[in-house]
Amino acid sequence: MVEPGLIRAAQSGDRDALITLLREIETHVYRTAYYILNNEQDAMDAAQEALIRIYTKIGSYEEKAQFKTWIQRIVTNICIDKFRRSKPTVSIDEHEMVFREKQNVEDEVLSAYAVQDIRNAIDKLPEHHRAVVVLRYLQDFSYNEIADSLDLPLNTVKSYLFRARQQLQTLLHDYQKGGVRG
Amino acid sequence: MTCQEVIEYMNRQLDDDLGEHEYEILMKHTRHCPDCAAMFERLKKLSEELGNLPHVMPKYSLVDAILPQLEQVVPFRQPEAASVEMSPAAAPAPQQARRAKERHQLRFRAITGIIAASVAAGLFLVSYNAGLFPSSNSFGDDNKSNSVAAADVQSDTFAAAKQFSNDGNKAEVGTESIEQDGSNETMRSAGNDDHVTTEEDLGISGMESGNSAGGSDGPASGDNSGSVPGEAPSIAGPNQGGGESFSDPNEGLVPAPLQAVSSDGSYIAKAAGYVIHVYNAGDNSDVYTSKRRNGKISTLLWSDDSKQLTYEIQLESGGMERYVIDMATLTESKAAH
């Protein structure tokens, strides 16, 4: 995503390189913030804060980590810490059974979920589950890259992602059935 | 295999994490389990839609929006990342014109500048160290403290250069080059200079430190020191005390006693409090003690022929007085600025 040479130049004090680097990553940073926070203005604020933090901390980045996981760690931390809202999220119960009722599979498969429904469903997930989903689908990260970004064990990443899918699937199914819309 | 275990396989399949054998197990199960088949369909659909979420872009450039803020913030740089950029910042253009000047004056000015630069670099090291640790600890939490610390360092450096130089222009040159570099590399070279400065020929070590600490007058000093190293006026800056004063940042803020060896090596002048003692370098006997002055002695400078010692007093009012001791008559007089 970002050339190693550009990163090194930025780290050695080349301010222009650092600004160029920030321009290259700003959309990625914003996208993560947007889907974690589900709010355009908060996403702008969080992304700007993340870019400033990347600007000031560029020297502390070490090449043993992937640069893209390093920046996603910064932006997810800001989203989770700074923009933590006391809003209700669904409880993710490990033993929740998924087959709650017989459904008409045909109907459901044919109709697509509305993007807004998906965003609202993501917004209902606990923050770390939300972050895992965002990194998996908006940044195309692997399990390991997600684990590095969020500083979580690999198995935790998998279980968060799997449970988040279950939960999203249930929520979206409810929306589609004309139930509670976000 | 339970349905719950199969759901994990479904998820891993969505992430391309299933081996061929595992995939067969999954498919075999879903063929005989309508619930799991339905679930798998829904999860696949969900995953596909999550993958198709709009790749939103910010309404305006976030970087442009924060540029003014970034101006206020000093990026934290890797300590070892600054190795290459000593030379570009060195040798500012105005220096070139001065080379045409009379050789004697050139050498005098060059050395003064180098000493000033290395003194400033040394003090910069000290003050930077003193400022760096608190600011780097609070890094990222408080951006303002960084820029404040940086501002302190700059003013310290400037004050230091002014204080220990008797050539205002040169002092500024030295300060400039250090501020431009503004890097730990500058510090490191200044640190190395300490070792060099403890060598016998302070004139030559001064040259070397000048070259490595920004090289304000690199070319000029190279000309002169190369041909007549022995004649180079020996001017000891306050960092002549060597490594100790730099090992402890707090201690380093108080300059080591100012002293200077005359060009021919026959006299040693030392500042002690508000007076200057001149000793015979051979037997360490007292030659002359200056009058007591009402300010801090900031510079000791021998003339090339070792017949005159010029010193500067920094008055508490902020002014500066310059005096010259004539070694032939052992008298001193106020010098014109």
Automatic annotation (TrEMBL), chain A:
A GO MF label: DNA binding
SUPFAM superfamilies reported in the protein's UniProt record: Sigma2 domain of RNA polymerase sigma factors, Sigma3 and sigma4 domains of RNA polymerase sigma factors
GO biological process: DNA-templated transcription initiation
Record key words, sorted: Sigma factor, Transcription, Transcription regulation
Every RNA polymerase sigma factor 70 region 4 type domain range: 117-168
Pfam families: Sigma70_r2 (PF04542), Sigma70_r4_2 (PF08281)
Gene3D superfamilies, per database record: 1.10.1740.10, Winged helix-like DNA-binding domain superfamily/Winged helix DNA-binding domain (1.10.10.10)
InterPro entries on file: RNA_pol_sigma-70-like, RNA_pol_sigma-70_dom, RNA_pol_sigma70_r2, RNA_pol_sigma70_r4_t2, RNA_pol_sigma_r2, RNA_pol_sigma_r3/r4-like, WH-like_DNA-bd_sf
Domain RNA polymerase sigma-70 region span(s) in chain numbering: 24-87
Domain of life: Bacteria
Family to which this protein belongs: Belongs to the sigma-70 factor family. ECF subfamily.
Protein name, UniProt field: RNA polymerase sigma-70 factor, ECF subfamily
Record organism: Paenibacillus catalpae
